[in-house]
Design a protein that fits this description.
By secondary structure, the chain is mainly α. The chain is 58% helix and 5% strand. The longest helix has 21 residues.
Length: 528
């Protein structure tokens, strides 16, 4: 006879509130439970999930580790910990936890799906694809797993199979907005009348979730843009961005303040005093700037060189910066050994991404522009490439793009303009205090005179020219960004002008950009 497990009614109510996403009702119930019994591992686990839902991942991790300490065989808590580790860009650690979870619960499709995603995060694509295939063989009617499988197939360049996986997901769940957006995001799929009708029907359905709605709006925006209906396309883009913006805590003034602090800390005196500090390894090449500015193109060109390995958008610089108490004001207080150790930590953390013996590798996280002074201090021999694109072209391309995570500034034209201005402001400061340190690639110039720009780029990296860098679209490698299919084609000019059809609606963006718009691409305005 099996003994029934009893649950405190408050725990049940908290779980129901969590399922309904009414977090403010769940929190006091869980706090009361844990005040009475701080060893209730089920309540601890649920409270950790609540913390994770609102982005408090450190709290979530600490709570889950406490639950596992109290109950080492509490498999659901270990699975939750693996998810937190994955979401905080510690895929290798997540895989260690998942190995124990799958040993205890080998048939859990959700766990296998996360395990596949974690393998993909560290570049183990064959293992990831094999796991997805295993899950879908045993449970073929899971649309989100088909979608994840499609993502991975797209990443490794198996486009036709990726599209087929996306279409299979839609056969199972026609209103799954993220799949429609995934098809649109390939930039190579043209939607049929039937596709558009299906998306519009899903958008009109009362049961469609907000998340599905914004994905559908972004996909419909792309569909109507392809048909040269800029007015309808912009209406969908604006609607999708509006919905997404409501769910995000982004504040433009926070970015402005962070840039102010970094400029104040990054003084000529600081760099003069620690010019020989940091880890001397020349391995990393950082390609950074705004998203949608051509950074994936620059990465693909560089990764076509025999001495350079392409990896992905790596989170490690930002994580290391956050580990420095009082950052960035405290940079001046770090001694040479501390700077050296931080650089060495970066190399050690990113080693899991290396797959070849090539001596140099690329870190292509665009947002690293915020940490260029930090990079210079901890890795003085690293190369910095700033990929820059026309402000209106770049910002509107971001406005059309739905990012899976991060990039909260992209869902408002005003926020985009302010962010672009802050980025230019900090990079102008770096140019003043570290002349020649940053090599700037202007996207429009790369399009017009590719060979000259590629030669200049390689020269900055101290490398000889190789013809393969001009045939970058023939390079076979995994590409994990929205531009994955674009860089598998020869360079094209159409993208430099596509924003012009939408110019009647871009006044808020122009106003936020201010003098930066008029100055592009020459020297920044004098006030910078």
């Amino acid at each position: 006879m099996t003994t029934a497990v009893s649950y405190d009614p408050r725990l049940v109510r908290a779980a129901m509130a969590m399922n309904a996403n009414v977090l403010h009702e769940a929190e006091p119930l869980l706090r009361a439970l844990l005040k009475e019994n701080p060893f209730d591992v089920r309540a601890i686990r649920l409270f950790a999930e609540l913390a994770g839902r609102i982005g408090r991942y450190t709290d979530a991790e600490n709570l889950l580790r406490r639950a596992i300490e109290l109950a080492p065989d509490f498999t659901p808590a270990r699975a939750n910990l693996a998810l937190v580790l994955y979401r905080t860009n510690r895929a290798s650690e997540a895989l260690e936890e998942l190995a124990r979870v799958t040993a205890e619960d080998p048939d859990n499709a959700g766990t296998l799906n996360l395990q596949a995603a974690a393998y993909g995060r560290i570049g183990e694509f064959d293992e990831a694809l094999a796991l997805y295939a295993q899950v879908l063989k045993d449970a073929p009617h899971q649309p989100k797993v088909w979608m994840s499988y499609g993502h991975m197939l797209k990443t490794v360049g198996r486009l036709a199979e990726g599209i087929a996986a996306y279409r299979r997901a839609l056969e199972i769940q026609p209103g799954l907005g993220e799949v429609w957006w995934s098809l649109a995001n390939l930039k190579t799929v043209t939607f049929s009348d039937e596709d558009i009708a299906a998306m519009q029907a899903a958008l009109a359905s009362e049961g469609t979730t907000p998340e599905d709605r914004w994905h559908l709006d972004f996909a419909l925006g792309k569909a109507h843009e392809d048909r040269a209906d800029a007015r309808t396309a912009f209406a969908h883009y604006a609607a999708g961005n509006g919905l997404r913006r409501k769910r995000l805590p982004y504040k433009a003034e926070d970015t402005t303040a962070a840039v102010d602090r970094t400029i104040a800390a990054a003084t000529p005196d600081l760099f003069a005093r620690v010019s020989k500090a940091g880890c001397p390894a020349p391995d990393p090449i950082f390609v950074l700037g705004m998203p949608r500015a051509g950074s994936t193109l620059v990465e693909q060109i560089l990764a076509s060189h025999s001495q350079i390995e392409g990896t992905s958008e790596l989170p490690d610089i930002a994580l290391l910066a956050r580990s420095v108490e009082g950052y960035p004001a405290s940079l001046a207080a770090l001694d040479p050994q501390a700077l050296h150790d931080l650089g060495a930590q970066y190399l050690e953390r990113t080693r899991v991404q290396r797959r070849t013996p090539r001596p140099l590798f690329i870190d292509k996280l665009p947002n690293n522009w915020m940490h260029v002074p930090f990079i210079r201090l901890i890795l003085p021999n690293a190369k910095i490439i700033d990929a820059r694109r026309h402000p209106l072209s770049c910002c509107f391309s971001n406005f059309k793009q739905h990012f899976a995570r991060g990039q909260g500034f992209t869902y408002s034209l005003q926020d985009l303009g302010a962010y672009y201005s802050d980025y230019v402001r900090l990079m102008a400061h770096v140019d003043r205090v570290l002349p020649g340190y940053v090599h700037r690639v202007i996207y429009e110039r790369m399009v017009e005179d590719t060979e000259a720009e590629v030669r200049a780029l390689l020269d900055h990296c101290g490398l000889p020219f190789e013809p393969a860098c001009l045939a970058f679209h023939e390079t076979e490698r995994a590409v994990r960004t929205p531009s994955s299919e674009q860089v598998r084609r020869p360079i094209y000019r159409e993208g430099t002008q596509s924003w012009k059809a939408f110019e009647p609606w871009l006044d808020p963006l122009k106003a936020a950009l201010g003098d930066v718009l008029a100055a592009y691409p020459e020297a920044p305005p004098k006030w910078m």
